[in-house]
Amino acid sequence: MNESDPLLDRELLGQAFAALGQRLERHNVRADIYVFGGAAMILAYGVDRATRDVDAVFNPDGPVLEAAAEVAEALALPRWWLNSQASVYLSTAEDGDAPPVFDHPFLRVQAASPRHLVAMKALAARAQDREDLHVLIDHLGLTSPQEVFAIVQEVFPEERLSARKQLMIEDVFLARE
Q1: For residue 59, what are the β-bridge partners?
Q2: Confidence bin at 3 (pLDDT 50/70/90)
Q3: What number is the average pLDDT over the span 38-57?
Q4: What is the distance between the alpha carbons of residues 7 and 65, in angstroms, rounded to a whole number?
Q5: Spatial distance between the Cα atoms of 32 and 135, rounded to a whole number of angstroms
Q6: Could you write out the three-class secondary structure of the chain?
Q7: Of 1, 20, 27, 65, which is the most exposed, with the fewest CB atoms less than 10 Å away?
Q8: Are 41 and 121 in contact (CB under 8 A)?
C-alpha cells in the first residue's frame, strides 16, 4: 500500500464489483464475498468515505483472486484491492444477518452485520473505529456500553475487552450525550 493508490469510494466499489461479476461470468464461476471493515461501512451503513482496500473472505478463493487481479488492471486499482489479509480478525460465529450489498448472477457480496462490526470495532478500538461505532450504535439503537460488551461476548466469546477498550467504548457513549 502506498499513498498514491486510489481510494475506493461507494461508486468505485460498485464499478469494481460489477467488473468482478462480469469476469466471473466469463469464466462461468459463481462466487460469494463477505466484506467487513471500511468497505462494509461504506456499502451497507452509508458512511461517506473511501477505503484503500476491501477486507473480505470469498469463495472460491483462486478464481476470485484471479478475476480481482484482472479488475485491478482494468480499473487501475492496486492488485490487492480485494484481499483476505484481515480475515484472521473475523469471528467464527455465523453471521446470519449479513446484508446483501451487491448482486450479480455470478457474484453475491454481503457485508458484515452491524452486530459483528460492532464487536470487531470494539475489539480493535482504534481511533478511526470511533466514528464507525457511533454509526453502528445508532443503527442498532444501543443505549449503553454494556450492550456493546454483551455483543462482543456473543460474537467473540473467547475474547475479552481490555480496560482501555472498555473505556473507549464508554467514551463513545459519553460523547453522544
Answers
A1: 32
A2: low
A3: 95
A4: 19
A5: 26
A6: CCCCCCCECHHHHHHHHHHHHHHHHHCCCCEEEEEECHHHHHHHHCCCCCECCEEEEEECHHHHHHHHHHHHHHHCCCCCCEECHHHHHCCCCCCCCCCEEEEECCEEEEECCHHHHHHHHHHHCCCCHHHHHHHHHHHHCCCCHHHHHHHHHHHCCCCCCCHHHHHHHHHHHHHHC
A7: 1
A8: no
CA distance 43 to 32: 16
- The answer to whether residues 156 and 119 touch, using CB atoms and an 8 Å cutoff, is yes
The three cell numbers of residue 53 are 482496500
Give the Cβ contact number of residue 43 at 10 Å. 23
**Model pTM score:** 0.92
Span 43-48, average pLDDT: 95
- pLDDT score recorded for residue 2: 57
User: Which CA distances in Å does 55 have to 51, 73, 87, 88?
Assistant: 10, 19, 7, 11
Nearest by Cα to 171 from 107, 125, 140: 125
